[in-house]
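Predict structure. Input: Molybdopterin biosynthesis protein, 369 residues.
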Amino acid sequence: MATERYHRQVILHGFGETAQLLLSKARVLVIGAGGIGCPALQYLAAAGVGCIGIADDDTVALSNLHRQVLFNTEDIDKPKVRIAKKRLEKMNPEIEIISHPVRLERAHIIALLKDYDYVLDGTDNFESRYLINDACVLLGKPLIFAAVSGFEGQLAIFNVADKQGQRCNYRDIFPIPPQPGEIAGCAENGVLGVLPGIIGTMAAAETIKLITGIGRPLINQLLQYNLLSQDQYKMNISPGDDYAIAQNEDDFLKMTDPVFCALEVGYTEIDAEQLLSLQKQSTIIVDVRERHELPILNEQIYKKAPMTEFPTFLDSDIEEENMVFICQHGIRSILAAQAAQEKYGTSKNIYSLIGGIANWKNYFLEATK
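Output follows.
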């Protein structure tokens, strides 16, 4: 089994031929051959994962090339899965590459996922993320989740039991899907090409760790990575009970709207106008961005509590009745609101600014004058 191709990893203490054999027997489905999927596919193929599936219905565009490193200019307008399959087979002809040139839909996702042991979600839209998550929960498939927004990336492992036997999924972090257009994607916000490369490579590493049993995979943890500062922090995820997921295939197929099963959570998402109204009441507004992030807000109005320092903030005494959390894009503020809700329960009113400062830039520019 230990060929020259894999020699450098086989000789690693704690890895060896046993881990390489596990990789050779594994079947991994990578959904999305984009900025995250491309590096993940390359490293999974190079590592010797026995069977890799690629699911994507898109074609290569010129604007993809700065981050989707499996493709080049000659590939424009060609199907991504066809090109990716060809390149990966040249990289490692010893493994099986299966292309699925399809857009994921509720009607066929269950059949697709059944053929694989692990699922890596590299998609860039919320509808797909919730669909993939719910299907993996139903089938009991480990899910490696990876995403980017602006200069930040996220990584987590869902649907795998931790030492306490708990299994968390994407809805334990974001039980309520955002409305269409509510949170801008890379096409609107932009993305620096190296960021999805970093997150995609990290996702491949987490997949390899899961398959081989080495290290400490991000089970029931969300890793947040900031490219500009190289800051990283991890938050523990706890199982929630404020959502419902189909327990059988018949119920799953009846779920035509990905937001239908979202129930009320312990915090509320608000817009800038509602934030202005709350400022007139007993309210603390907490900026959970890191200290270097712009725009810098008036600290007489906005309490600074970066996520890297957030546990210390939660240990402090909060007198205000209302707590509002804000960040750049409305992602970290949700995590902060959830953490605050776990501590305070119903004793305080907890809010997260939807879309973050980037979505309400004019409001904050006025507020800082």
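The CA atoms of residues 174 and 334 lie 8 Å apart.
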